Description:
Layout (H helix, E strand, L loop, with lengths): L1 E7 L3 H7 L11 E8 L3 H10 L5 E4 L11 E4 L2 E4 L10 E4 L2 E4 H9 L4 E2 L5 E5 L2 E4 L13 H21 L21 H4 L5 H15 L8 H10 L5 E2 L5 H11 L3 E2 L3 E8 L2 E7 L5 E11 L15 H9 L2 E13 L7 E4 L6 E4 L14 E12 L6 H4 L2 H15 L7 E14 L10 H4 L5 E3 L10 H19 L1
Parallel strand pairs: 1-20, 2-3, 2-15, 3-12, 9-17, 15-21
Antiparallel strand pairs: 4-5, 6-7, 8-11, 9-10, 13-14, 14-15, 16-19, 16-20, 17-18, 18-19
Helix pairs in contact: 2-8, 2-13
Amino acid sequence: MKFNGFDGETFKPCHALRSGAKYPKNKAEESYDVIIIGAGISGLTAAYTLKDQLAVRVIEKENRIGGASKRGNWKGINYSLGAADTGQTYQIEYKGKKFDFLSKIFKELKIPWKEVRYPSSAFKYRGNIVIDPFCSCHEQGTTSAEVAKSFEDSMQKLRRVLEEYGEPVIPIEASPPSSMSLDRMTLQEVFTGATSPFSAFLNSFSRATFGARADKISAFLGLYYLGRESEKRYACPGGNATVSESLAAKINNKIELNCTAISIEQEDTACYVSFIDGNGIVRTYESKAVIIASEKHYLPHIIKDLPEDQKKAFKKIRYNAYIVANIFTNHIIYNSAFATYFDDAIFGDIVIADWVASGEKNQVGTSAPAVYTLYCPIEENQRQYLLSQPSQFWLDKILVEFERQFPDSRNKIEEIRLQRYGHHYILSGPGFINNRNLIKRPFNNIFFAKDDTQGIPSLESAIWSGLEAANDVLEKLA
């Protein structure tokens, strides 16, 4: 079995800054209209929106673009290193207008979405597979009457709650005002009284999607996702990386990798962004505006004169940690659904990497290459071990659980790759979404993007926040 340790986020420069590291100040060597910090989908969307109107430069601390939307390839199979699927369209009514902000950009980028074939989801509960837990018509013989009733009752409860409060949407401002009261409770509270099968699923779904159990996240956030799960799902081979790669291709040479922002200062109408490049050299660019499309918790350390209320708000933001494990096998070990959630496992769910690329599924036991993407959320009190424990520690835990779920699978594994994320997605507890205005409030000529400004980790949040920040910049500079 081949294993080369962790890949993933670069922590050292940011941790050094947090610990008080000081860097020299340099004169600006280049000048742009807009500097964008972060080459995830949000930052790339902003750059794509502005590229034909302003001089744009994107700096990214990692050695590749995409943020949580990256992919790899093994024996011709594209696999995801983060987000795996989405909705293809997104119709909203906002500020008196009805429009679809996803379809337009996907059409321009020519994203080759494929509908995720049935079944798109499953839940492994006490050794049994519940096929399509969001549907009342479970496959005969796969689900006991007790389990089926638990899910049917809870899905009815979900529909009643959404009908009573209204469905949460993105942007948050376009959501029905009544739905905002959902942010005052946890997802678990909404389903108080649910029987064991669905309660177990709710926690597995919540851990896999948000990195925390259902009693830790806002009901607004949880119901946003649950309300859309019964809709058609779309994916590209390798997940949402197709979107980030297509955006980056349109931006051409406007992106610099291995560049960690360490200081942002404003003087009159000019912004000065200092960063450490891939050679360890401190460099500075000047711009008329800055869009920060990266995690916010470290911004109090780099933005000079940041207002105190905004500084406190940024410091309170919580992000979850994840390990994304891709297991490469020479046999088909499992093929029941595109995404399968697991009760009480180190991985919240498993995605079959080539589900949307292959026409038909091979039978279990067939000799054929396969890739299984495991999403392993790390509890907040365990985050420290991502750095203090070697990669072998996490590999052993994942392998033990994988073998427990799929007996006799270890001798069929050829390789494992682990992707580490220290601050993967925002963790929106009750109250965060109602009080997120400070997170997205511009500071003079500094604007904020990324899905954390919406409080909902999703592709549509990332794209919307990038569009919104770009339009705010255009308005400001005009």
